[in-house]
Amino acid sequence: MSPSTPTPLPFAAVDLGASSGRVMVGHVGPGTLGLTEVHRFPNTPVRVGGTLHWDVLALYRGVLDGLRAAGRATGGRLASVGVDSWAVDYGLLDADGALIGNPVHYRDTRTEAVIAKVAETLPPSDLYAATGLQYLPFNTVYQLVAAQGTAALAAARGLLLIPDLIAYWLTGEAGTELTNASTTQLMDPRTRDWARPVADTLGIDLSLFPPLRRPGDPAGALLPEVLTETGLTGPVPVTAVGSHDTASAVAGVPARGERFAYIATGTWSLAGLELDAPVLTEDSRRANFTNELGVDGTVRYLRNIMGLWLLQECLRDWEARGQTVELGELLRRAASCAPLRSVVDAGDPAFIAPGRMPERIAEACRGSGQPVPRDAAETTRCVLDSLALAHRRALMDAQRLSGRAVDTVHIVGGGAHNELLCRLTADACGLPVVAGPAEAAALGNILVQARTAGTVIGGLRESRQLLCETQGLRHHVPSGDIRAWERAEARLAKEEQPCG
Questions:
Q1: Which CATH superfamily is domain 252-436+473-500 in?
Q2: Which letter does DSSP use for residue 211 in this model?
């Protein structure tokens, strides 16, 4: 590095996923974007009194430990901190700003009893026309209706989505970041503001939410007690990023131009396109596509697919039964299994709940008249073939409904490491797949911070150019007979039912 070249600045990304959290340090400078994981910790839900909760205090402890590790890695100084996490869930605050109980997990069953009630009050077509959000039984709107009449909601004077709650504890300043707010089904994607008629109709008090923030807005600075706890040298600003992890992941897609699709893979697969405006047609609702807000005024037009949750749950089940399963070897065996022998609908809500996943996959195959997987390798191949098929269906539907054609598919997130899934997705879609970066959410988080600090100049185009220049990417070219995928899709094809 020449004496005139600015020293790369260190930024910390707090990236909380449904199964684990981590703190990553990114060093950003001209032509430089390096990323190091400094701390990872589990995210293990807890069932109490029949309700499934997030252990949010354990998560916050993991965040503090991670920031301490970030300080050790950077000599005690950080240019900024940004927080992203999963969507829809929230914590309630009392009049003193204290948390009222642990946040409820989106996989809890409390919303099941209110879905019909919401539909009777506000027809699904009207709710979609107002919010553009895909029907999912755990959307925040259903959670808040389910909470009506409870002592906790009655006592609440504030509501913070999970990344906003973590940022509040770090800074003492409350805000509602836009990209995650757009997953509540309480926001109008056209105005990028609250859908007040929806909230009023359903009896939801929007005043519980603090003011909206956009990615790049200031979100306070680390409190003195946090600096003491972590050993960091202040002041350390906290910057609002795409706080929904998928918003950060899409900002971290190393795309060239606009004709690309993305699949953010992990516990879920989020497959879709980046658009300039939402698609609010009835056809879009029936196809169960969502219009979530992204960085720089974009819309993430996508479909939620069950994702690697299916395989993760299978692995948990096999290990609980005492079967020794090494993932690398399992994937090698799965690659040699007969392709497309059996497939299931990876978007079926029947797979949302944890437990008995291999048996439930077998039951789905049996119920559709397909061969039942005979061992762990065949079950794994069924899962990955099914995911690739779901990716194909989502991206074909997204192009048809939006009128935007694509020529490349980018797979980012944890699934980018899964060579078999990436290859099968290329074959199923009939399009080249670019795999990586696996840490797209952390990179997108850090790039928004770096832009705010003036370390990266420009918008998404310039950020993505830096990603292309600095990140190791793998390319998969489609091979084989696309007709085999068309036949497999026909086995699952059925008339789309109205959502909700």
A1: ATPase, nucleotide binding domain (3.30.420.40)
A2: P
Catalytic residue among 84, 164, 245, 385: 245
Q: How many degrees, rounded to 5, is the angle at CA 366 between CA 268 and CA 308?
A: 15
Q: Among 244, 379, 366, 373, which Cα is nearest to 310's?
A: 379
What gap in Å lies between CA 162 and CA 102, rounded to an integer? 11
Burial bucket for residue 187 (CB in 10 Å: 0-12, 13-18, 19+): buried
Terminal Cα-to-Cα distance of the chain (whole angstroms): 58
* Single-letter amino acid code for the residue at 138: F
Rounded to two decimals, what is the model's pTM? 0.93
Encoding tokens for residue 219? 């979100």
Order of strands across the sheet with 299-305? Answer: 290-293, 299-305, 269-275, 260-265, 408-413, 433-435, 474-476
**Domain spanning 9-239, CATH architecture:** 2-Layer Sandwich (3.30)
Active site residue 245: yes
Report pLDDT digits (tens) over 404-433: 999 999 999 999 999 999 999 999 999 999
Distance of CA 59 to the CA centre of its chain: 17
Amino acid 494: pLDDT: 55
- Kindly give the interhelix angle for 419-429 and 327-335, rounded to the nearest 10 degrees: 30
Domain(s) labelled CATH 3.30.420.40 in the chain stretch across 9-239, 252-436+473-500
